Amino acid sequence: HPHFLDEFPETELVVSEGERVVLDCSVGGNPEPKVSWKRVELGLPVTQHTMPGMMLELPSRWRVIIPAVRPHHSGTYQCSAVNKLGKETKQFSLRVTAPPELDGPKEEKLELSLNEKAVLQCRVWGTPAPTIVWEYSNSTSGFKTIQNPGFDLRLFELSPLAPSEAGTYKCTAVNTFGTVSKHFNITISEPPKIEQSELTEELKVSIGSDMLLSCVTSGSPPPVVSWLHNGHLVSSQSLVDGHTHSLLLGPVNTTSGGKYLCVASNKAGVAEKAFKVKVLVPPRISESYQFS
């Protein structure tokens, strides 16, 4: 009748990732038993073909050797010994522990648009399964824990994005064997706006005097401002004071009148404000002489 040569019929093994593991199924019997291995959960025989990375020592020691164990090797392995007088089985419960490990870089930069939907993915693995905590920080405060309402804690959804949600998000994965974190640096693009852009501002300026046109802009990133006169780009340099962009022209002449546009643009959009300029020319009296 087949019998195992060690005194413990079942064995539980808890090992760290990367260790060498030996599952020993030394067996005796007369006639000599036929020995086979299988992975219980998968219902598959253990061979070098079905379980790459494993080595079998058959029939001398009936051992399964895993040179560098990985979490996917965790499970129950069964050794069966059979001859014509009977059958005996022995099971090994193998649990592979591993600290949390990220799939991908530890830092990610995201440039997003206002009202866009974003899903931050903290793809992390470990055994036992790590606990995941999300935190948020901006330019005025340090990291604070934030609640993740989603079912899958590895995903954090931001929708729709508001300007106040720009900053750094951090996911931290923890189990009893280690900790790992990932940072998401988020900038949010906001389309340009110009104060009172819905109104066309009308100006009257006397010929020969200076003219100043101004528009107050906002947006993220700060918009670039250009000026157009009757559809043509104005070469004069814009004056900038904070969010106020001004165009100084002078002395004006009769060709200075017409339509001016303040155009603010960034990667999120374009905004315009129109000015209508009329150049005032003083009356002139022309003298004529007649000779008789």
UniProtKB/TrEMBL annotation:
Q: Which domain of life is it from?
A: Eukaryota
Ig-like domain boundaries: 2-97, 100-187, 192-278
What are its GO cellular component terms? Answer: axon; neuronal cell body; plasma membrane
Tell me which CDD domains the record gives: Ig
Q: Does the keyword Disulfide bond apply?
A: yes
Alphabetized UniProt keyword annotations: Disulfide bond, Immunoglobulin domain, Signal
Q: Does the keyword Glycoprotein apply?
A: no
**What Pfam families does the database record attribute to this sequence?**
I-set
Output one GO MF annotation.
axon guidance receptor activity
Instruction: Set out the biological process GO terms recorded for this chain's protein.
Output: homophilic cell adhesion via plasma membrane adhesion molecules; synapse organization
Q: What is this protein called?
A: Ig-like domain-containing protein
Organism whose genome encodes this protein: Homalodisca liturata
The organism's lineage is: Eukaryota, Metazoa, Ecdysozoa, Arthropoda, Hexapoda
